[in-house]
Amino acid sequence: MNADISSDPGRLRIDEIQRMLSRSSWCPGITKQEILQGIGHSALVVGAYDATGRQVGFCRVISDRTRFAYLLDVIVAEDCRHQGIGQAMVRFAVTHPDLRDVYQWLLRTSDAHGMYGKCGFVPLEDTDRWMGMMKQRPDRRTFLG
Fold this sequence. Notes:
Blueprint: E1 4-6, H1 14-21, H2 32-40, E2 44-49, E3 55-63, E4 68-76, H3 85-94, E5 104-106, H4 113-118, H5 141-144
Parallel strand pairs: 4-5
Antiparallel strand pairs: 1-2, 2-3, 3-4
């Protein structure tokens, strides 16, 4: 599939994004409010659209736009996977003019190492220098509606 890749937030279809992300392993049941809040705090959002205008992919980047960027929420509609859309979105993001100065890119994946490898990502060599804190995902239903 030859998808149209865009960073125009006005084209994003939140219902489609929620449908895709809520079925993912990393944020099952994500709410529209969580998605909107994440988009609002992102340095870049990317959408992929088929010939009919249907949104078939999404990803976003959290970044200071200077040295560091974190790629996340890379998702492609189930019926459009294995057609290069994920790779196209990732390449679009890492070469975007707003992020041209960024030289440290990170992401987390449990099953897409091959796809990210084709885009230049490699396993971290110096993992002893990196630390993280993983908290339990809050139950936002009580205060996000």
